């Protein structure tokens, strides 16, 4: 059969493929909107905005400063009072210090994995990565991994409104040939992979490829194609098996719903925001990423992951204080503060849990790498901080405590698995729900404990 063979009057095979394949949209629809597995667990849960400090942000230089510690651990930053008596922050998060009444600061996060890739997997999935070896290549993204949060939601509570369950902004976590784990559906399969964006929402020419119609294609014309395709699918049963193998039917319908509803396109139209609101978040990639996250949640996307920088942006072995002061903290501080204010004003704060966390913290000890002149801090999973707000969290509290130099928890620790259990409960999923692993064996989705202390 050639491309010009007529399958229906006025329709050739090439046109069928244009309608059926993701090329029509410029999106990877087979991995974003693939056929959903049915599950008898509807959800009426809340939404999550996970603000990820890739590389591991320094708890000691932000939310758990130690001004009385020795010189070789204290660091260069001063501390400031917050709105809550007795709670002090670094001097370089002044906007968040004014909103401490909204924050629950967990200073006793801890685990035992100082590796970026596997530590990221644990944070983004709520489960420890299966061991496949010690090299970075052994730990990169793999279909044997656990699913990230939105992918599990997609599996357990399939959506039929044309919206993805999980969107990652504004760049994937990739360095060279290595792709960080925890960014897709793992053993649940590509049909439940999240949608990842690789575009700067602060750019003047920001757009999401595929959310605008191709030249010459109108909604009415697309509807005509959809009706034609429906007739074709009914009349040409001889190719049904082939079409099912290509997963065309469900993807065509989801693509059609996506384009004609306009929900996603409208959410990504960040230029429609008043300039005053955009300035409020900060005219930088971090701030506009967080504004875009609010728009997506408002449109109905339940899980939005905001990567604060590229892979290892917060991995400050060198020039820790210069990078934090000049590049990393200003956007985070202003952007998160604006997000909390905006969610409150929009009436969304009670239904949106905001989490700020990295895969680990930084060493109490200050060190200088060989050949470098500016000191920094190394990887430190034994104790670090996560910040929670919204979603019913009781603000104005510090949960747990680290020791005198911020090296180890001196109260019972909270594991990334517990963070994962809390995310799942927020989304309306029982963390101990069973799902099939890659061998179709039933296993618990999560082995953590919900952090009920967050809710007072």
Describe the structure.
This protein has 456 residues and is α/β, with parallel strands linked by helices. The chain has 2 domains: 1-32 and 207-271, no CATH class; 37-202 and 284-455, 3-Layer(aba) Sandwich (Alkaline Phosphatase, subunit A), CATH 3.40.720.10. It is 32% helix and 15% strand. It has 15 helices and 18 strands. An 8-stranded mixed β-sheet has the order 10-7-11-3-12-15-6-16, with helices on both faces. The chain has a two-stranded antiparallel ribbon with strand order 1-2. It has a two-stranded antiparallel sheet with strand order 4-5. Mean pLDDT is 85; it is low at 1-43 and 238-251.
How do the helices and strands line up, and which of them pair or pack?
Layout: E1 6-8, E2 11-12, H1 13-20, H2 29-32, E3 47-53, H3 71-74, E4 79-81, E5 88-90, H4 94-97, E6 103-109, H5 116-125, H6 136-139, H7 149-156, E7 166-169, E8 174-175, E9 178-179, E10 195-196, H8 219-235, H9 240-245, H10 248-261, H11 263-268, H12 275-281, H13 285-299, E11 303-307, H14 320-345, E12 352-358, E13 361-362, E14 379-380, E15 384-390, E16 397-399, H15 416-426, E17 434-436, E18 442-444
Question: In summary, what is this structure?
Answer:
This protein has 456 residues and is an alpha/beta fold. The chain has 2 domains: 1-32 and 207-271, no CATH class; 37-202 and 284-455, Alkaline Phosphatase, subunit A (3-Layer(aba) Sandwich), CATH 3.40.720.10.
């Amino acid at each position: 059969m050639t491309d010009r063979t007529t399958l229906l009057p006025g329709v050739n095979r090439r046109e069928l493929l244009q309608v059926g394949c993701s090329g029509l949209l410029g999106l990877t629809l087979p991995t974003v909107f693939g056929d959903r597995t049915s599950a008898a667990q509807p959800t009426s849960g809340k939404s999550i905005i996970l603000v990820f400090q890739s590389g591991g942000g320094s708890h000691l230089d932000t939310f758990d400063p130690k001004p009385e510690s020795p010189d070789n651990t204290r660091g260069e930053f001063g501390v400031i009072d917050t709105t809550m008596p007795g709670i002090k922050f670094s001097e370089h998060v002044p906007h968040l210090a004014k909103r401490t009444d909204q924050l629950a600061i967990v200073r006793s996060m801890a685990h035992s994995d100082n590796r970026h890739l596997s530590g990221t997997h644990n944070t983004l999935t709520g489960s420890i990565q299966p061991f496949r070896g010690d090299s970075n290549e052994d730990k990169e993204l793999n279909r044997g991994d656990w699913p990230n949060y939105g992918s599990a939601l997609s599996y357990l509570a399939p959506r039929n409104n044309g919206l993805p369950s999980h969107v990652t902004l504004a760049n994937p976590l990739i360095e060279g040939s290595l792709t960080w784990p925890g960014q897709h559906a793992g053993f649940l399969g590509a049909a439940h992979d999240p949608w990842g964006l690789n575009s700067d929402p602060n750019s003047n020419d920001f757009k999401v490829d595929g959310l605008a119609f191709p030249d010459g294609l109108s909604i009415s014309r697309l509807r005509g194609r959809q009706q034609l395709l429906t007739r074709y699918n009914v009349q040409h049963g001889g190719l049904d098996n082939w079409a099912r193998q290509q997963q065309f039917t469900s993807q065509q319908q989801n693509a059609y719903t996506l384009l004609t509803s306009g929900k996603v396109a409208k959410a990504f139209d960040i230029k429609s925001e008043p300039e005053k609101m955009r300035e409020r978040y900060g005219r930088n990639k971090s701030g506009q990423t967080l504004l875009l996250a609010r728009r997506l949640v408002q449109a109905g996307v339940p899980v939005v992951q905001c990567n604060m920088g590229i892979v290892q942006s917060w991995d400050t072995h060198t020039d820790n204080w210069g990078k934090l002061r000049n590049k990393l903290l200003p956007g985070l501080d202003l952007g998160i503060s604006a997000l909390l204010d905006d969610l409150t004003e929009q009436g969304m704060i009670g239904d949106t849990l905001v989490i700020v966390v990295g895969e680990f913290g930084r060493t109490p000890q200050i060190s200088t790498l060989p050949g470098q002149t500016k000191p920094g801090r190394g990887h430190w999973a034994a104790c670090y901080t996560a910040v929670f707000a919204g979603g019913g969290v009781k603000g104005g509290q510090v949960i747990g405590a680290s020791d005198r130099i911020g090296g180890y928890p001196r109260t019972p620790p909270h594991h990334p698995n517990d963070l994962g259990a809390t995310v799942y409960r927020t989304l309306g999923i029982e963390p101990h729900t069973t799902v099939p692993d890659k061998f179709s064996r039933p296993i618990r989705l999560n082995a953590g404990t919900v952090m009920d202390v967050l809710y007072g």
